[in-house]
Specification:
It is built from two helices and six strands. By secondary structure, the protein is of the alpha+beta class. It has a four-stranded antiparallel beta sheet, with helices on both faces. The protein has a two-stranded antiparallel sheet with strand order 4-5. β4 and β5 form a beta hairpin. The model has no long low-confidence stretch (mean pLDDT 92).
Length: 98
């Protein structure tokens, strides 16, 4: 299996959650990854203790584009998000600030 963690989630909603709960962080993860694999990958990469992992799967959607040459049908990619709760007092510096 390829890498479990794809990238950190930096959205308006995730920023609000992180401000309210500094020990919660969001990540885009591989669709086939489970909660145990996600927790293990976070622990190995950032050397922190994971208390909980909440995941959300988003299915791909059908999209149609109408152009002068006709109609083109396609799909958006499916993806999975994970909100990771760290042990109290632990944080991860996603932005790399000193």
């Amino acid at each position: 299996m390829k890498s479990v963690l794809i990238r950190p989630l930096i959205t308006e909603k995730m920023t609000k959650i992180s401000e309210k709960h500094p020990n919660k962080l969001g990540f885009m993860v591989a669709v086939e990854a489970n909660k145990i694999e996600i927790a293990k990958a976070i622990k190995e990469k950032f050397s922190v203790d994971v208390v909980a992992v909440n995941t959300v799967r988003h299915p791909g959607k059908s999209r149609t584009q109408f152009t002068k040459k006709g109609r083109f049908a396609g799909r958006t990619s499916k993806y999975k998000k994970a909100v990771v709760t760290l042990k109290e007092g632990q944080t991860i510096d996603i932005f790399g600030q000193a």
